[in-house]
Structure formats: C-alpha cells, structure tokens
Design goal:
It is a single chain. By secondary structure, the chain is an alpha+beta fold. Helix content is about 40%, strand content about 30%. It has a single domain, classed as Protein of unknown function DUF3248 (Ubiquitin-like (UB roll)), CATH 3.10.20.
Amino acid sequence: MTDPSLSSAPDLTRQLEALGGQLVWRIGKDEVSEQVVVRLGFASATPRFSFLPKLRSANDAELQEAVEAGLVVIEWVD
C-alpha cells in the first residue's frame, strides 16, 4: 500500500514554491538587542519594510551563532 502523504508531496512542493515566489524578506541584527531579526512578508508589503527600524548587517558566523543560541526573531510584515 502506498503512503497517501507521498502522493501529495509534489503538489505541496509546487504550492510552497509558488508561495516562496511571493515573499520578500530582510535578515539582520537589531542594533539594541543584538538579536537576529528575520522580517518576512508578501511582496505587496515591501513598502512597509521601510517604516521599520533598520537592521544592521550580520555575517554568516553571526547568523549561525544566533540560531544556535535561540536569538532569532521572526517578524511578519503585513
């Protein structure tokens, strides 16, 4: 018997890829808290990103360290 979740995997993958194509994001460090912030929203929300506090750049090592320390904050931008 075939696992029913496997038959829907290609459809789910296609839907996730379509959703990913509609998203924009910014990743950086908050200047006050030093947390890594991931701002995520639909492309239609792009103008609202400019009204949020600036994020300073973070290199790969800083990002990895923040993930391991649990210092990553996800913000949804409407």
